[in-house]
Amino acid sequence: MTLHLRLRDLREDNDMSQAQMAELLNCSQQTYSRYESHTTEIPLESLIFLAEYYKTSVDYLLGLTDTRKPYQRKK
């Protein structure tokens, strides 16, 4: 599964609208819609924010792993 599909699925699983996600990312709803339709690349800072928000890893969002759990941080 690719990034844009995972973004949409996670947003829908959390009962969030594109407008709500755009507000969290400090961008327009149109820009967020472009992230989900894969017509605009998502900035790295936003990708990291979304991974933390959804309690998953950037690797999961990018489709590099199917494990939804975040990596444990080193202490």
Detailed description of the structure:
The protein has one domain (3-62): Orthogonal Bundle (434 Repressor (Amino-terminal Domain)). Helix content is 56%, strand content 0%. The chain has 5 helices and no strands. The chain has helices spanning 3-13, 18-25, 29-36, 44-53, 58-62. The longest helix is centred in the first third of the chain and has 11 residues, at 3-13. The relative contact order is 0.17. The model has no long low-confidence stretch (mean pLDDT 93).
Summarize the structure.
It contains 5 helices and no strands. By secondary structure, it is mostly helical. Helix 2 crosses helix 3 (29-36).
Break the fold down into its secondary structure elements and pairings.
Elements: H1 3-13, H2 18-25, H3 29-36, H4 44-53, H5 58-62
